[in-house]
Amino acid sequence: MSEAEFAVVRDRLAVSDSVLSKHVSALADAGYVRSRKGVHQGRRTTWLSVTTAGRTALSTHAAALRAILDGVE
C-alpha cells in the first residue's frame, strides 16, 4: 500500500491544513481514503492512502470525464 504524508499532499494541492482535513474526513467517511497517525523524523504526522474502493471510484469518475470530453468538438 502506498502512503503519502499529509503535509506533502497539502503542499502538492496548495490548500490549507483545514481544507485538506475536511476533504480527507469526507473521503474517509465514504471509505475512499484511510489515514493513520505516526511519528516521522521525531514529529507526529498523518499518513494518507487510497483504499481499493477509492481507486475504483476515481477510475469510474475519470472514465465519466473522458466520455464527456469525447463529446466536445
TrEMBL record:
Coiled-coil regions listed in the entry: none
Name assigned to this protein: Winged helix DNA-binding domain-containing protein
Organism (species): Angustibacter aerolatus
Residue span, Winged helix DNA-binding domain: 2-69
